[in-house]
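User: I'm putting together notes for a lab meeting next week and I want to include a structural view of one of the chains we've been expressing. I don't have a solved structure, so I'd like a prediction I can at least talk through. The sequence is below, exactly as it appears in our construct file.
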Amino acid sequence: MHGGPGLGPVFERARYPEATHVHWWHQPVIRPCAEGPYLDLLNSTVTEFRRVAGQAGAPLTVMASSFGAHLAVHLARTVPELVKNIVLLAPTFNPEQAALRLARRAFRVHTDHEHAGKLAMALAMYEEDPGRPRFWDVFGALSLLPDVTALYFGPNAGPDAARSFAELIQQPGAFDGPTSVATSDDFSVRDHTPLRSPFEGPVSVLFGAYDPMIDAEQDRKIWEVIFPQAEFCKVETGHFPLLELTLEACLSPA
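Assistant: Thanks for the context. Below is the predicted structure for the 254-residue chain, given as structure tokens.
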């Protein structure tokens, strides 16, 4: 389950064309006038997972990246009997704070850019008056800076990884902006107090050593509440371990 919200699995499919045993679920876009886009996404997740598990006739491995970790948590609470094990890749517990960390990193990298001042002002206004309107102002100012998506990757990824990501995200279906905004806003008004999951099977959590969006030490404490049995591993990647490592390395971290 990929992140976003609003991202499609085009990146994973391009990276692993031979992985026919993996179900790269393309999450639905929002319905017109949807009242609860995030809740709709959770319901769709359970429906799809039940379908695929039913076809397999056995519990399945859940692999979730970034925002997708919240979908994995929901599956673990709702249908734990259908989950074999869980692999969380750079899970973002608080997407708003993660995006703000990325914005601050982008500002430090592009301090001399002509639009850096707009981002600095937007960040300052958010700090003065936090909330979704100010957050989206930060996001808008961030989009004015060049090569922001390259910041997702670690120094060992090489230029091809960031370039491929930038090219793929322009493809139809790779990213749906309205879905991202609506789902993010609906997510932000829900209660996300971390609670212990009823799922007692194996859980692996991978944090990227160069992830610009996650404070691994802080977030580890949260995920330990949800999955006390989790094993944690820091890998030499940015925010997308699955796009920098092999599939096998992500599923079975050392």
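A couple of points you could mention at the meeting. The first strand starts at residue 60 and ends at 65. The chain has two domains: 10-96+166-251, 102-155.

User: Perfect, that's what I needed.
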